[in-house]
Amino acid sequence: MSHPDERPPVAIGHVLLRSPDVAASNAFLLRAGLRSIETGDEIAVLELRGGTHLIVLPSDQPASGEAKAGFDLMVDDIEATHAHYAALGMAPSELQVAAFHTSFTIVEPGGSEITVTSSHASEQPI
Questions:
Q1: Is CATH 3.40.50.261 what the domain over 14-118 is classified as, yes or no?
Q2: Which residue among 2, 17, 28, 115 is the one 20 to 30 A from 88 at the CA level?
Q3: Distance between CA atoms of 80 and 89, rounded to whole angstroms?
Q4: What is the tally of helices (H) and strands (E) in the chain?
């Protein structure tokens, strides 16, 4: 299969987050830098870089304890993002340095813990 540019020919289209308060989770994710595509009483669709859509759907109950979201967010400047989220009152955890990434976590209003990680994108077009 050939394609006219050097980007991989596939991407992740959609990821899901369930929340007991779709509106509060949507507002939190907008503050985190995602783009609003659609909002309603029962759904929020937000867009990330590359066109992936995060779909927030209702849940009967909050995420329990340390429930981790089924995805992470990747940013170019982890230190600046950490400082920005702290200034917004998003209560980011301390930075954790590992072999491949530096990361921290935030907890969205529905109770899901979201990891924010430094970029691992290659030098190739993405």
A1: no
A2: 17
A3: 14
A4: 2, 8
pLDDT tens-digit readout, 97-106: 998 899 999 9
What predicted TM-score, i.e. pTM, was given to this entire model? 0.88
* Token pair recorded at residue 44: 């929020």
d(CA 99, CA 58): 36
Residue 121 CB-half CA count within 13 A:
14
Q: What are phi and psi of 78, to 5 degrees?
A: -65, -40
- What span, in angstroms and rounded, lies between the C-alpha atoms of 126 and 2? 16
CB 63 within 8 A of CB 39: no
Please name the amino acid found at residue 71: F
Across the beta sheet with 102-107, the strand order is: 68-75, 113-118, 102-107, 96-97
